[in-house]
Amino acid sequence: MSSIAQVNFPRMSQLKRTTAEVHDNLDNKIMAQSPFASKENHGDFLRFQYLLLNHVVPIYNSQQLTAFFDDLASRNRCDAIALDLQDLGMKAEGLAEQIKIEDLTLAQAVGWLYVIEGSKLGAAMLAKEVTQLGLDADFGARFLAGPGNGRGSQWREFMQAVEALQLNADEELELYQGAKDAFAVAHQLLDVIYQ
Fold this sequence. Notes:
Blueprint: H1 3-8, H2 10-31, H3 39-55, H4 57-60, H5 63-66, H6 78-87, H7 106-118, H8 123-130, H9 151-164, H10 169-194
Helix pairs in contact: 2-10, 3-6, 3-10, 7-10
């Protein structure tokens, strides 16, 4: 983040610093599988994304969180990935258990959202990569399509909402822990797909 962003979004900057290593490790682990080398590889990538996004559906359906993120339900991309998998002749596989929203504090849930929403930022680049496989926002790559109002503005709105949260010192730590937990689960799910 630029120094301007660090001043305007100190909490988001701290989230980024706190999770930088585990985030980079996950990105490297994904790219090592050459997700755009073939439709089959892309299908495995979609299966991983589906497992992760299906896991967090309860967060996107949380009434408590909707008070802070009014467009939360519309941000959920799980259905789009299920359609992408269907396009490729693959079945959507769900985890036996989705995350239990009641086991998370509000701050932890926002930490999870930081990870899932942040993953959309790289989607524009990935959407270009996947066109070489003949896939696009209408077939096989719906979940990579940006929102109507643009990826950048949607991310800014999310950052502003996170910065506006009134958190005490313990809740601040819970926020960072939630993000770390989300990355840890993402690593586990990636192993499930690529074992």
